[in-house]
Design a protein that fits this description.
The structure is a single chain. By secondary structure, the chain is of the alpha+beta class. The chain contains 7 helices and 13 strands. Strands 4, 5, 6, 7, 8, 9 and 13 form a 7-stranded mixed sheet that branches. Strand 6 and strand 7 form a beta hairpin. The mean pLDDT is 87.
Amino acid sequence: DTSEEMSTANQFMQNSDLDVDKLGNTLYIRKVSAKNVVKPGNTVEMDADLLTWETDTETAVSVTPTFYYSAVSLSEQVKQRLMAYPKFEAAIRKQFLRHIAEQIDLDAGGLGDGLSNFVSDVNLNAALLRNALGTLRTNAQREYNTGKVSAVLRIHPSQQQHLYGIPEINNAEMRGEGAPNATGILVKAWGCDVAVTGNIESSGGNRQNLLFIKPAFALVYNQEPMLEPPQRNGLATLLIAFADAGIAEIYDEYGVSVRTTA
């Protein structure tokens, strides 16, 4: 299971959420726009030609795949001289899956740079997070039902000390063995699922920390990270792992880039 190597992309909509088996060459995700509600007077005729009609404005977002792979060729010389070759090969194969998953997650973190909505400051602080949550709540509207729908907050390691130092968060977690003061881990803050990850986009002098709800983005697979059986090639053994996946922003209004410059 490579989802443990992901912190951001594993919170996106995936194949099962979109009711698709594969991505193919291009997957088009249909977006249905909000509709207007008309309140006619009690005496207004309701014949079809007297109703107010809207022009259908559905749009589609396209998701295209990226192919990822890792490959190593091990000579027979190396294999014969290793004391514990099976464990060595197993370690390489495990690293393959880890690094492919991490690269997909890094690409997912890069989507923060394309979000229209952002808040910014030097470091994370209470006012900045409240602003970000307010922006998300305003734009996502009913899709972000606080208390029923958890937002996802992903921050760069450089901001961990500032997040943990926010009194409104820190004081509420003072008690209990599961609190960050005991474990060093903060998993919930102001209704957000929180994680620290290095897979955060850095661009234009900003760290693009991400705040979003699940429908904001999609991660769709043709093939999840997998290992090929070892292959012989003359006096060498070939080890290969690969994945074929696409990531995309679906609903821009469901995400906020929480930009920090430190």
